[in-house]
Amino acid sequence: xxxxxxxxxxxxxxxxxxxxxxxxxxxxxxxxxxxxxxxxxxxxxxxxxxxxxxxxxxxxxxxxxxxxxxxxxxxxxxxxxxxxxxxxxxxxxxxxxxxxxxxxxxxxxxxxxxxxxxxxxxxxxxxxxxxxxxxxxxxxxxxxxxxxxxxxxxxxxxxxxxxxxxxxxxxxxxxxxxxxxxxxxxxxxxxxxxxxxxxxxxxxxxxxxxxxxxxxxxxxxxxxxxxxxxxxxxxxxxxxxxxxxxxxxxxxxxxxxxxxxxxxxxxxxxxxxxxxxxxxxxxxxxxxxxxxxxxxxxxxxxxxxxxxxxxxxxxxxxxxxxxxxxxxxxxxxxxxxxxxxxxxxxxxxxxxxxxxxxxxxxxxxxxxxxxxxxxxxxxxxxxxxxxxxxxxxxxxxxxxxxxxxxxxxxxxxxxxxxxxxxxxxxxxxxxxxxxxxxxxxxxxxxxxxxxxxxxxxxxxxxxxxxxxxxxxxxxxxxxxxxxxxxxxxxxxxxxxx
Length: 497
Fold this sequence. Notes:
This protein is an alpha/beta fold.
């Protein structure tokens, strides 16, 4: 028995309430093998990731966030976002080159801003990767040259993504924010071991096995790329632009901050994300098109402001590339409706007479409001679900294990028996009362299913996540990394050595 009915992905899908959409994405990924979900913003993408992880841990989830900087900014995107994008784009290339395995359940989560941002060809990420394994013979200089060419920075101690360090026969590389940094131990030109290490303590912690190092950026600054950049920059902006700081820095092989905003000059072409997803069904979030319209206006405003501020007397001159070199155009967005593989979600019911799928999900009562002055919300909720006994699948979802324990106790006291706790939706196959971790803000009800969240019952989450606290051992690790001669700041006495 399904929590929601199987529906076919068509141009429009109604009843797109949050919980129903979570189930729809998980269900379609399991049925079709692969699916792209385009959220309207980063918060919605993160919410979907948390929900899918809780609903079906067997799903293979890839994230492709947009850059976290404004269009035509002077800063580069955050290193963690860059690393996540490169990992995902490299995985998309592998999936495109190989047939997707049977029984695979792959979901690509991205945002409307990311969908509108053009990308380097996926082949770039395959051509600029390096595979390393124990026993391999390769010169250290070959690896360091590869790292330098692909955006890595050489430091004395590796602590952050995109850094590498060479000390005798040991080479440290921080190649991804999704995994710990790795340490290569050489004997001559042979790799004796590959181990992960803690960037705080610098201590090796375990074998890493075979390793693939991807670029640290979405471009490769070699001689051919520098030559292409110089030619295209001059062709776009004229001979006077040869005195621009950006042009001079790239010509010298440097990587100035914000160089990503001239990405189209560093590649022979950029391609839309849709061109990299041949055969992938695409499900667009509620209100994606208004979000795209707002993004187009923002891009246009920033581009116009940059163009109006151009002055040849300005030593920090900023010459922006045309928007259609980096982003989709307005006609590309308006043409989304014509994509055969695209479906659009609407959070209201299907209009009368329209033959389009409807999840039939409708909002549930808010028991903290409907309970009388003398009644408790938990009692009202227990009475409501008891009336559905044997008729529907009833799922009470909580944000974490602590809330699960408390809800189990409260409902057991009210209905006289404990709810069945499950780890994922794959364990639910018949009507009954179930309890699971599912970070859902608002529940929903269909003809066959009732899903209630903590907020539906109490108006707020029962427990809030604790703020991040730095562990004392981490503090001691950082103190132990200090060396004689280092500058320090004392809380009372100020700067010292």
